[in-house]
Amino acid sequence: MRKSIATVSVSGTLTEKLDAIAAAGFDGVEIFENDLLVCPLPPEEIRARAADLGLSIDLYQPFRDFEAVPADLLARNLRRAEHKFRTMERLGADLLLVCSNVSPEAIGDDELAASQLRLLAERAAEHGIRIAYEALAWGRHVNEYLHAWRLVRLADHPNLGTCLDSFHILSRGSDPIGIEAIPGEKIFFLQLADAPLLAMDVLQWSRHYRCFPGQGNFDVAGLVRHVLAAGYTGPLSLEVFNDHFRQAGTARTARDGMRSLIALEDTLYGAAHPAVPTGFAFAELAHPELEDAGALGGVLAALGFQRTGTHPTKPVELWEQGGARLLLNATGGDPALVAIGLDSPDPGAAVKHAESLLSPVLPRERAPREARLDAVAAPDGTEIFFCGTDWLDDFRPSGPVAGEITRIDHVALTQPVHYFDEAELFYRTVLGLRPQESLELPDPYGLLRSKAMSAAEGAVRMVINLAQVGTRDLPWQHVALACDDVVAVARRLRAGHPELLLPIPANYYDDLEARYDNVDPELRELGVLYDRDAHGEFLHLYTVTVGRVFFELVQRAGGYQGYGAGNAPIRLSVQHARPH
Ligand SMILES: O=C(O)c1ccc(O)c(O)c1
Ligand SMILES: [Mg+2]
């Protein structure tokens, strides 16, 4: 299907927007009036620029507060419309979006509204222009899409149709099944936006929190199915008002919008993800070139990891315990998590799929006998490797290392605020992870927003955290290691090891013991954190931070599904209290 985007959805000047929108592969644009008003170029030049870029101007918008007004106001509104028509002729646009009247002067009279819309359509027809009438969710009298359609039907003019906008329909909880009753040729335009579920005024929600399909909680694909079933053949057009998108990189947001539409089409055509990862192959940590991997090696050795192999051509060591594998890459930089290896049932298909979703595939250098490893860049630059089974052979590992740690449980990455939605869409679509809980947690110097995602019944879990701004901004990352016996590790490390994140405040344990019966008193002694959910229990423990990275040991009992999120504020406070 043709793909469009409203210029309001991305940052920049109008010319920057058009360049980025074309570069991302869109077929057309909706020109938002404000973008035109602030543009120094005359409409003819904007038209030529769009044409040079291969973009059609699919819609001009919005024309506000037109219908259902007293006679004197109608005359003024028609004069306003004539000006828009002339601008559109210069722009080469032939579809005008009219959104439902929000003014207190609007009259709640369907006959009047329809007759005035008909008049507008007659005037538009003289210019070869068509009108797409949209119900704003907060319209004074018309705020339901079926009401807008009733007025269009009543007005009965070939140059008048309706514009459907997924946000206005789904934010009100309207059932989109009714779309199928609208003849496809009377749906002049389709605008798509998703949004997180928020209990707030619908206008504020729309103007600040819309996001691309797949980044929020609406069933946008389900709505599009109804629109296609009605016989609509126009473009899928993104229309997003979002405070963060307005600050984010223009090209990057345009590409993210395109990724969202490609993924939406995949959903519509019922294309299953070709290679959802089945586990963590490894986590790769960069570190300064030091004997025994320095402080990082010290923490890992204390946790019971051993170096079991070395890469034949690169300064990379394999450290193992149970099924947990860490690669230590002596890049010279501060310790940081730089790559994640995922067990993939079909690495080639996974990379092709990632590429189809516009993820940059990373070039790899490898010696002739080394395993082929395909990687793409996640939005924050973390390299994501799709691993088969042969990569491990390169390291000639010396054999299994027994210990309490069994595998990588999850990896947590921190994203800047204006790329948080992009990261979520990437992990959902490129890796096929499903969103789990979304949380806001108090930090002594801010509020931590966090989203957990998982696949293969928890075999792969990722947590994306929002980097905090304006406070002590610590872009921490962490690797959580599944462990059979957190208490045993804590006992061992308490005996003179400085690697554990301590002390945990006594107030925490006082509260814990009030909340739950039978809390093991040893948890307090050892500084082990504890949580429970409907399924089971969770014991966990953190190490100190080395560079940007810290480790967590987690013990899930009885099918516990969470991440101990309620304890994150405790962890954050202790981390902030320690010198870095
Ligand atoms: O927020 C608005 O006013 C507005 C304007 C035009 C639209 O198409 C829309 O969905 C919302
Ligand atoms: Mg709209």
UniProtKB/TrEMBL annotation:
Highest taxon of source: Bacteria
Keywords: Dioxygenase, Lyase, Metal-binding, Oxidoreductase, Pyruvate
Needed cofactors: a divalent metal cation
Catalytic activity: 3-dehydroshikimate = 3,4-dihydroxybenzoate + H2O
InterPro entries the record matches: DSD, Glyas_Bleomycin-R_OHBP_Dase, Glyas_Fos-R_dOase_dom, IolE/XylAMocC-like, VOC_core, Xyl_isomerase-like_sf, Xyl_isomerase-like_TIM-brl
GO biological process, any: 3,4-dihydroxybenzoate biosynthetic process
Entry GO MF terms: 3-dehydroshikimate dehydratase activity; dioxygenase activity; metal ion binding
Keyword 4Fe-4S: no
This protein's pathway: Aromatic compound metabolism; 3,4-dihydroxybenzoate biosynthesis
Binding positions (Mg(2+)): 410, 478, 552
EC number: 4.2.1.118
Xref: Gene3D superfamilies: 2,3-Dihydroxybiphenyl 1,2-Dioxygenase, domain 1 (3.10.180.10), Divalent-metal-dependent TIM barrel enzymes (3.20.20.150)
Family: Belongs to the bacterial two-domain DSD family.
Function text: Catalyzes the conversion of 3-dehydroshikimate to protocatechuate (3,4-dihydroxybenzoate), a common intermediate of quinate and shikimate degradation pathways.
Name the UniProt record assigns to this protein: 3-dehydroshikimate dehydratase
Originating organism: Nonomuraea jabiensis
